[in-house]
Amino acid sequence: MKVLLIFTFNTSLEHWDKRGIISREISLYKNILEKEHEVYFLTYDDKKDFQFSELLNGIKVILALKSIRSSNRRIILIKSFILPILLRKIFKKIDIIKTNQLEGSWVAWIGKIIFRKKLIVRGGFEWLKFYILHNITAKNKKNLKYWIKYFWIYIVELISYKLADTIILTNPIDIEFIVRTFKLKKKKIKLIYNFIDTNHFKPQNIKKKEKHVLFIGRFTLQKNLFNLLEAFEDLKGFSLDLIGDGPYKRNLLEKAEEYGINLNFLGVLPNNLIPSVLNQYDIFILPSF
C-alpha cells in the first residue's frame, strides 16, 4: 500500500522542525513504514526538506514548490490546484491520499477526483469553526473580507467532507459542528484524539519549580491566553512560563506588564525535550476554547 500525505497549505518539514514537532509528527508514518507500506510526503518546499532524509528513514519527500516554481503565496495557492496534474506520476501510483489539515485539502480531493483514489480527510482542528471563533466580534462580521474567506473555507471543507471516504477529527465538539454545518452522516467520521507517547511522556524524578505554572502551545486567540493572564492577576507570587511562539507574543508581554505578572517565555522546544520540562512543574494549564 502506498500512502500520500498532503501537507497543510504552504507548510514544510522545515516548518515542523522550527515548531519542535517534527519527530512527533513523523512517528506515526514511520509505524506505517514498519508494516512494509510506502509513505510519501507532499510538502511546500523546493529543496530544504531534503535535509531531513535521515530522520525520515525511508519516507519519500515530494517538493510542491519544485513543480510550482514560485515564492509568491497567491501564485502558490492558484497553482496548487493543478499539483495533482503536475505530479500525476506520483498520484497515479498512490493508493490512499490523506490530508494533514483541512487547509490545503483541495490538492487531495482534486487528486481523488482525477485518479479515483481513496481519500482520508483529517483535521487536527476544525478550520471553519476556528475561523469563526477568531472573528467572533460583530465588527469583523461586517467586513466583506471576513465573508469572502468564510465562504472560501466553507466550500473547501464542504467538498472535502463530502468526497472523503473517511473523516478523522480529534474531538467530539468538532464532529458535532461538521455534522450540523455540512449535513454529514456520522458513519464515515472517526474520532481519533491527538496521541501522547506514554513511553516518552512519563513521570521523572526531577526537582519541582515552586509557584510556577506551565503552558505549552501557540500564542493565538484560540489558546485563550489573555483570559489566563487576567486570572493570574490575582495569583500573587506565581510565575507563568510559556513554551511556544505565535503572533500575540508582544501583546501578551504588554498585558503581563500591565497586570504585574511574572511572565517567562521559554521559546520553542523540540518535542523530545518537553517531558523533562513538564516534570519540573506541579501545575500545567491549557485554557484553550
TrEMBL record:
Protein name (database record): Glycosyl transferase family 1 domain-containing protein
Species per Swiss-Prot/TrEMBL record: marine sediment metagenome
Xref: Gene3D superfamilies: Glycogen Phosphorylase B (3.40.50.2000)
Single GO MF annotation: glycosyltransferase activity
Residues covered by the Glycosyl transferase family domain: 199-288
Alphabetized Pfam families for the sequence: Glycos_transf_1 (PF00534)
InterPro entries: Glyco_trans_1, Glycosyltransferase_grp1
